Amino acid sequence: MSDKSPPKVELTIPIIPDMELAATKTAEVVAKHMDLDDEKSAEISMALIEATINAFEHSDSAEGNVQIHFVIQGELLVIKVTDRGKGFDKSQVKIPTIEEKITSDHKRGWGLQLIQELMDTVEFESTKEGTTVTMTKKK
Amino acid sequence: MADFSLEVKDEGDVVVIETNGYLNNVGGEKISQACYEKMENGKILFLLDLENSKVVNSIGVSILIEIIEKLQDVDGRLGYYNLAPIVEKTFNIMGLTKYSTVFSSKSEALEGMS
Predict the structure, then answer these.
(1) Chain B residues with CB inside 8 Å of A101's CB?
(2) pTM, rounded to two decimals
(3) Where would I find the STAS domain in this sequence (chain B) (predicted)?
(4) What is the complex's ipTM, to 2 decimals?
(5) Are B59 and A108 in contact (CB < 8 Å)?
(6) Cβ-Cβ contacts under 8 Å for A20 (sequence gap 6 or more)
(7) Which domain holds residue B22?
(8) Dihedral sign, Cα of residue A97, residue A100, residue A103, residue A107
(9) Are the beta carbons of B57 and A108 separated by less than 8 Å?
(10) Number of structural domains found in chain B
(11) Tally of domains within chain A
């Protein structure tokens, strides 16, 4: 058994509009390295956009950046998106529906729903010191 | 900032909006502004050509929901064609396809809207 640690890519991106696209460029390279098909690669990028802009918009992070780790564990890609913000209570996040949103003044709030639909597994760890979203996709 | 531009064309009763770039909040606002200007002039049928907007986010797409809501008030309709698979999947997850229509081509879209 090898002691070699799994391949990892670490990225720190500043909380600046559209900087989530820098994360998707890295995700595309990682997906290509894993030989993931175009559909899975696009799903990963979309979920990553949503996780990153959630961190941008809701964390109120004084640190001003978001850490993203990609870890390739054989056939499994693990992505962690971490902010050092104020945290959130996932139980308070309502699952959106189009029927409710179409007449609501607040049409946003789809990020978590999209992440959960697009990735194989999603876990949230959130405290007052920050939030980590861990997402996985199998090859 | 990611560039976003659009071109607006009247094709009979249908307004065709060709977008180019990342459909985020900025892109969504530009689309809605173009739609609302046309609605003020009586147009109620809109088609988005998203061939050159293969990356979207939920904030930009949420603005399309706002357009759909406003079109419902005037019996108008919104449709799309040339969607990247991930964009169509996003529209499905968010439920846009219950209130607007994805077409497979421009010709099918123009026929379907008329």
Answers:
(1) 62, 65, 95
(2) 0.94
(3) 4-113
(4) 0.93
(5) yes
(6) A13, A48, A49, A52, A53, A56, B57
(7) 4-113
(8) negative
(9) no
(10) 1
(11) 1
